[in-house]
Write a structure and sequence with these properties.
The protein has six helices and six strands; from the N terminus they run βαβαβααβββαα. It has one domain (9-196): Maf protein, CATH 3.90.950.10. With 200 residues, the chain is of the alpha/beta class.
Length: 200
C-alpha cells in the first residue's frame, strides 16, 4: 500500500467547509499540502453508492482523476437504529437542497416519535485513492443519544442533536478541539494515519 509523505499535495474531496476544516486540522501535523475540491472548482460527483465506503471511494476517485493527485474523501452520516439505519448515506439529503440541518434534525425527531430507542451512531468512512488506482478505506463509528430539543451552536450537521455516549453535553455544546479528538472522523482518521502517514 502507498503512504502519504510530508510535502506531498493531497486533495480533500469535499465541498463542505466544515468537513474540510476538520479533516485539514487532522492532517496538519503530517506536513501535507492539503487542497480542497471546492476551492479547486471541481464538480461534485453524484453519490450513487449504496454504502459510506462506496460513496467515499467514488468522491475520492473523481477528485484524483480530475487533478492527478492522491485524494481523500469522507462519507459520513447518522445511522439511527430505530429508523432502520436512516438517514445513513442520505444524511445530507435529509437536510434538503439548502442543506438546512435544522430541517433534518426535526425530521429525525418527528420520525422517532415516542420510540424509547434514542440511539444515534455517527459513521465516517475515509477513503484514499491514488492516481494508479490503488485505494484504502477506514471507518470510524461513534455511538450517542439523540436529544430534543437540540442544544448548542458549535460544529455542523447533526452535532447539536448528538450527545456522545458517556457525556452530558452534545457535540453542538462541546469545545471543537475536544470533539475533534473523539469524533467518528477522528476514529477513522486514527486508523488512516497509522496505516498511511508519518509525522512531519
Amino acid at each position: 500500500m502507498h503512504s502519504l509523505k510530508a510535502g506531498e499535495k493531497l486533495v480533500l474531496a469535499t465541498h463542505n467547509a466544515g468537513k474540510y476544516r476538520e479533516n485539514a486540522e487532522l492532517l496538519a501535523p503530517y506536513g501535507l499540502e492539503v487542497l480542497s475540491a471546492g476551492d479547486l472548482g471541481l464538480p461534485e460527483p453524484e453519490e450513487t453508492g449504496d454504502s459510506f465506503v462506496a460513496n467515499a471511494v467514488l468522491k475520492a476517485k473523481a477528485a484524483c482523476e480530475a487533478t492527478g493527485l492522491p485524494a481523500i474523501a469522507d462519507d459520513s452520516g447518522l445511522d439511527v437504529p430505530a429508523l432502520d439505519g436512516q438517514p445513513g448515506i442520505y444524511t445530507a439529503r435529509w437536510a434538503g437542497p439548502g442543506r438546512d440541518f435544522m430541517v433534518a434534525m426535526e425530521r429525525v425527531h418527528r420520525e422517532l416519535g415516542d420510540s424509547p430507542d434514542r440511539r444515534g451512531i455517527f459513521v465516517c468512512n475515509l477513503s484514499v485513492v491514488w492516481p494508479d488506482g490503488q485505494t484504502a478505506s477506514f471507518e470510524g463509528r461513534l455511538e450517542g443519544t439523540l436529544v430534543w430539543p437540540v442544544r448548542g451552536d458549535r460544529g455542523f450537521g447533526f452535532d447539536p442533536m448528538f450527545q456522545p455516549k458517556g457525556f452530558d453535553i452534545t457535540f453542538g455544546e462541546m469545545d471543537p478541539a475536544k470533539k475533534h479528538a473523539m469524533s467518528h472522523r477522528a476514529l477513522a482518521f486514527a486508523q488512516l494515519s497509522e496505516a498511511l502517514l508519518e509525522p512531519a
